[in-house]
Amino acid sequence: MPLFGTEGTHAGEFIVSEANGSRSRTTATVTSGQNLAAGAIVATVTGKLVEYDNDGAGTSNVATGILFDAVDASDGDVEDAVVITRDCEYNLSEVIWEAGQDQAAQDAGVVDLLAQGLIGL
User: Fold this and answer.
1) pLDDT per position as a tens digit, 101-121
2) What domains, with CATH codes, occur in the chain?
């Protein structure tokens, strides 16, 4: 009997190329209450990662990286999440934007990431 299903997003699937070694990657804490997919665009608020929201308050409206793998912080902060923060080319069609982000918000996020050396293709 054949098996059919929906394959989820794999860790790092969005990466086209990155710097040697681990220079493109860093680790950070994902804030409690977040359940983020691999490839989610994130922002940094008080030193912790949250889902990027161009209309958000504080610094949640400045994209700072792309989450390498899925992280479920629903029940509390998750430390040591891998995030791509510099020197990387990524596939724009494979990153995950927060549901409310229209094209203008996504474009603003792409500009934020470009300033850090993350290039959307």
Assistant:
1) 999 999 999 999 999 999 999
2) 15-120 (2.40.300.10)
The sign of the torsion formed by the CA atoms of 47, 49, 54, 55 equals negative
For the full predicted model, state whether its pTM sits above 0.90.
yes
Contact 9, 29 (CB under 8 A): no
Instruction: Decide: 53 and 37 in contact? Cβ < 8 Å.
Output: no
Q: Give the 3-state secondary structure of residue 116.
A: coil
- State how far the Cα of 16 lies from the Cα of 13, in Å rounded to an integer: 8
pLDDT in tens, 56-74: 888 999 999 999 999 999 9
- The number of residues in the chain equals 121
Rounded Cα gap, residues 121 and 119, in angstroms: 6
